[in-house]
Amino acid sequence: MYTASQERYALSEKIFSRCGKSGVLLPKVSLGFWHNFGDDAPIERSRAITRYAFDHGITHFDFANNYGVPAGSAETNFGRLMDEDFRPYRDELFISTKAGYLMWDGPYGEWGSRKYLISSLDQSLRRMRLDYVDLFYSHRYDPNTPIEETLQALVDIVRMGKALYVGISNWPLEPLKAGAKYLKEHDVPLLIYQGRLNMLNREPIEQGILDFCAQEGIGFIAFSPLAQGLLTSRYLDGIPSDSRMAKEHFLKSDRRTPELLEYLRQLEAQAKKSNRSIAQEALSWVLDQKGVTSVLVGASSVEQLANNIQTIL
Ligand code: NDP
Q: Is the whole-model pTM more than 0.70?
């Protein structure tokens, strides 16, 4: 039986940040469930990480339909944690999910049609044992579906009470602009944009996406702020056998170049001056960019998450 820490909001002033010009406050460090929460990870470790997050004021958990191995298992396992641990705290949690990438066979299992988005969200709700999600994203832009179809599905998802807010992830700037306009005109303002932003990948800045969000009062949440672990001490001395890079799937070992190691050594020297870790240095850099609401970190241990949360305390 889990009882959340009484102290979880003791440091609210430091932890929360307003999401654009909305009424929503999000923790500056949010927890992502892409890796380490599927059937390929021990459930008790996933439970410990999730509890640690919530006990420290991390109220925002981010999913997508396809997270975990096999796809969907991160949501299914979280559904179990909802029932066993978090049900009494549902209204304190801000849970997001997404649809866009391949989830099931046939023509309705990916991209941006109304058929796919609504069916996928229904599946996510069943897996997570939830009545609604707080935030539902289009996970990628679909150039072959009329943009109005995707956007109207998002509007209707809110009208149906399946999600409270909508977000857009990985869309290029021009469709993002059109999407934000459409959603505003239909009284479902775009809450947030989710994009990859870290010291090694600055595309949302270079492409004007971060500026656009800041100007329009749309929140921005940075995924892979540690470049999947590259911007930490994880790979300084080799490739640990339990690391993401050792799996050679989403993070390939050819990313561990002499140039990267040199960059990390410099970052480490800089971090040491303020008694911080490389990860904390990297997360601070993202949080310092104008318009960033939150960094969406992954963690394979409580220690990693604790180190990451320490950045904002
Ligand atoms: P990060 O860049 O935070 O990488 C997380 C990984 O870095 C961990 O799994 C761990 O690797 C390592 N790590 C984390 N903290 C530390 C630390 N303090 N010290 C040493 N190593 C550390 O983020 P992710 O790439 O995991 O993405 C985060 C979230 O963003 C996802 O869960 C998902 O919610 C979202 N996302 C969204 C996408 C989209 O298209 N919208 C795409 C990708 C992610 P290890 O496991 O090897 O220990």
A: yes
